[in-house]
Amino acid sequence: MLTVTMYATATCPYCQAARRLLAKKGIQFNEIEVTSVEKRVEMINRSGRRTVPQIFFGNWHVGGYDDLAQLEEESGLNEALNSRVAC
């Protein structure tokens, strides 16, 4: 199984929604708090975006919460995650 990583902050409502959706689907993830300049720069360099959350399935950049929710609506998160493992 791929590692799921989410760059986030504790108080962001979109981060909280992403946490709930991932938990509801039973998907474990590593969370990286971007409260330090170094972690925020890491997130920006990796994703090309400045907003949180930024979610990755392995090296594949899913995007933010809206992208994650759309992925769930269109194909299902578990299916998308499994298809990335098969690649």
From TrEMBL:
The residue stretches assigned to a coiled coil in this entry are none
User: What are the UniProt keywords, alphabetically?
Assistant: Cytoplasm, Disulfide bond, Electron transport, Redox-active center, Transport
The record's annotation in InterPro entries points to: GLR_AS, Glutaredoxin, Glutaredoxin_subgr, Grx-like_ET, GRX_bact, Thioredoxin-like_sf
Cited Pfam families:
Glutaredoxin (PF00462)
Q: Where is the Glutaredoxin domain?
A: 4-62
* Signal peptide location: none
Q: Which PROSITE patterns match?
A: GLUTAREDOXIN_1 (PS00195), GLUTAREDOXIN_2 (PS51354)
Q: Which family does it belong to?
A: Belongs to the glutaredoxin family.
Function, as annotated, reads:
Has a glutathione-disulfide oxidoreductase activity in the presence of NADPH and glutathione reductase. Reduces low molecular weight disulfides and proteins.
Q: What is the protein's name according to its record?
A: Glutaredoxin
Native organism: Pseudomonas hormoni
